[in-house]
Design brief:
heterodimer; A: 270 residues; alpha/beta; Rossmann fold; 2 domains; six-stranded mixed beta sheet; 10 strands; globular; B: 308 residues; mainly alpha; three-stranded antiparallel beta sheet; 11 helices; 3 strands
Chain lengths: 270, 308
């Protein structure tokens, strides 16, 4: 079975006269898979996410959706790609444009040309799944940081994508907000939606991700299961991430397989 | 304090020759101070944000815009066409009562939102009531080099009438803006046949205004923390820097917003309307009808009855 989204030898940048930010990156996502994108600031994580939905001109490489190459110059193919692959921006203010939260959730479905009943149904479902039913009539600028993030997520979920790209979704969230985000991500997995997200939180990557990718200076330095990725920590030039706490304790205690969460660690330690 | 002084000066000049000087001076000063106190800025909320917040919390926010708009436009037209001081005063009072009563707007918030347009109106009134010329006025004449600073009965009446008309008109516009959230207003404009592109542009501009305001506020606070407005030269330097950075960042914001829209299959058309509105209730229809009849009745009486 072909991956739901695949990028092959992708090179992209923001200006054609400048060297590309992203160089020869190849990555694939299976349905329902959870992949975390790690890398220092400026490594090209956001650029990769933008390039995946054709928002940046590619200087090389290809984007494949369900085993079919997407011609990014053709409007219809681009629309299909963006319908199936949703992108949630790091700063929700970049994304929220409608005067109300419900208008925001309806923005994407309306662009798809769906009938009003379907638009409303999708917006309702997306708002409910993000816990924003009580904020329907509020303006984006009246929302808290966490609510803005959820409104941005609802705006993308309303398009019912099969792949979700999220640019540092936990940035700026309080612990409760992070918990709600992880719950939302778990629900996405149950619905079979593949998620590729960029983050700096190695503890989160360890307990959540099926695979992790490391971007360094625009190149894919490593792509593997978290156990193998964190086993290489320190060995990769430019890698400046600590190992996850649970992983480190598990290693020190000689546990095998290594526990993925604090709860699992406590259970096995007893 | 500037606003208090301005209001007191205008009131004093308008009342000179009609009321005893000492009570007039004290009354004008008291009114000026009260206005300035009521309209002083409290908290960080920007006027735009206050308007938005007030409109959303108003008991009339769900009332259909058509009926509300009709009453407010009638009030505005009556103010503009008012031939008498009494009528203009009554119309202004009606707008205030509508806003403060069923509109659910507090006196403090009304004064705060009237502060800026009110200051412009007071400046205009000052220019209308006082005249510089070679001949002394019949109410007040202060000799100055080259002539007199004069106030005449005619200029007093003209200034009072224009100011009351403008205050009334502003209040009727606020009666609509402070009870109607922007999305509903935009929807009404679209139903009135305003070009779709224009309405969409208004919606986007509205959103961007808040984004840019937040950006400006953050930069200003950051500059304030580093004494960016300490003294005139520092203030000018800071304002210049903030303005130039704001331009660059607003362009960046526009670029990022466009990318976010494209990521959701935007094809050059926006559909931003809200879903369902509530129908006009009987008390609302009755209230709107009575208010409309009152406005038209007052206007007719003033035209036929030769009101002052």
């Amino acid at each position: 079975m072909a991956p739901i989204l695949e990028v092959k030898h992708l090179s992209a940048g923001y200006a054609p006269e400048e060297p590309p930010v992203l160089r020869e990156v190849s990555l694939s996502l299976e349905p329902g898979e959870r992949v975390a994108l790690l890398g220092p600031n400026g490594a090209g994580k956001s650029t990769l996410l933008l390039a995946c939905v054709g928002l940046l001109p590619l200087s090389g490489g290809e984007v494949w959706l369900e085993g079919r190459r997407v011609d990014l110059k053709k409007r219809r193919e681009l629309d299909r790609l963006r319908q199936d692959v949703g992108l949630v921006f790091q700063n929700p203010d970049d994304q929220l444009i409608a005067p109300t939260v419900e208008g925001e959730a309806a923005f994407g479905p309306r662009n798809l040309g769906l009938p009003p009943e379907e638009v409303k149904a999708r917006a309702d479902r997306a708002l409910a799944s993000c816990g924003l039913e009580g904020c329907r009539r509020r303006s984006p600028h009246q929302l808290s940081g966490g609510e803005k993030k959820r409104a941005a997520l609802a705006g993308v979920l309303a398009m019912e994508p099969r792949v979700l790209l999220m640019d540092e979704p936990a940035a700026g969230l309080d612990p409760e907000g992070q918990g709600r985000l992880e719950e939302a991500l778990d629900r996405l997995r149950q619905e079979g939606i593949a998620v590729l997200l960029s983050t700096h939180d190695v503890d989160f990557v360890w307990r959540w991700a099926d695979r992790a990718a490391v971007l360094l200076e625009g190149r894919l330095a490593a792509l593997d299961v978290p156990e193998k990725i964190f086993a290489q920590s320190g060995a990769l030039p430019g890698w400046n991430f600590p190992t996850p706490m649970v992983y480190w304790i598990g290693k020190k205690l000689g546990l095998s397989p290594l526990p993925r969460s604090r709860e699992e660690l406590e259970r096995r330690w007893k | 304090m500037v606003r208090a002084g301005l209001a007191a000066a205008v009131l004093f000049l308008l009342g000179t020759g009609r009321l005893p000087p000492l009570p007039l001076a004290l009354g004008s000063l008291g009114a000026g101070l009260a206005l300035a106190w009521g309209s002083r800025r409290g908290g960080h909320a920007h006027a735009l944000e206050l308007v938005e917040r007030t409109a959303r919390s108003s008991p009339l926010s769900e009332m259909p815009v058509g009926a509300k708009g009709l009453v407010c436009l009638a009030g505005l037209a009556c103010c503009a066409a008012s031939p008498s001081l009494l009528l203009a005063l009554l119309l202004w009072g009606t707008a205030c009562l509508a806003l403060l009563g069923p509109g659910g707007v507090s006196v403090r918030r009304y004064l705060r939102l009237m502060a800026l347009p009110g200051t412009f109106l007071l400046l205009g009134a000052l220019a209308l009531v006082a005249d510089l010329g070679p001949r002394p006025g019949d109410v007040l004449a202060l000799p100055i080099p080259g002539g007199f600073l004069s106030v005449t009965r005619h200029s007093q009446r003209q200034a009072a009438l224009v100011t009351l008309r403008a205050l009334g008109g502003m209040s009727w516009m606020y009666a609509l803006a402070l009870t109607t959230p922007m999305p509903r207003l935009l929807e009404a404009l679209k139903h009135l046949g305003l070009p779709r592109t224009l309405v969409e542009l208004m919606a986007l501009t509205y959103r961007y205004l808040f984004l840019l305001w937040e950006l400006l506020e953050t930069m200003s606070q950051a500059a304030r923390c580093r004494l960016g407005w300490r003294g005139l030269s520092a203030g000018v330097r800071t304002s210049e820097a903030v303005a130039s950075v704001l331009l660059g960042r607003s362009l960046g914001q526009a670029r990022r917003s466009l990318a976010a829209m494209e990521a959701r299959c935007w094809r050059g058309e926006l559909s931003l309307e809200v879903f369902e509105g509530k129908p006009l209730t009987k008390p609302q229809a009755l209230g709107a009808g009575l208010l409309l009849a009152l406005l038209l009745g007052l206007e007719l009486l003033a035209w036929r009855g030769g009101w002052p």
